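Record 1 of the preview.
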Amino acid sequence: MVSFSPILLKDIIEIRCGGQSGIDESGAKASIKLGIKTTILSPYGWKFRNKQGEDICNEQLFKNRFL
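->
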């Protein structure tokens, strides 16, 4: 369990996200770095968008984004 603020009503015990590029990816990376249990659900076909705006369907590249 991680407590970040005295005004939170509950402790953050887990983060779940869809693994999409953008906010989902940023939130997952932040929670991993903070030591919060993080579950990332992959879009069908391990699909994500790279910085050049190209759609990529590759399991290993998808997972490498969160290492």
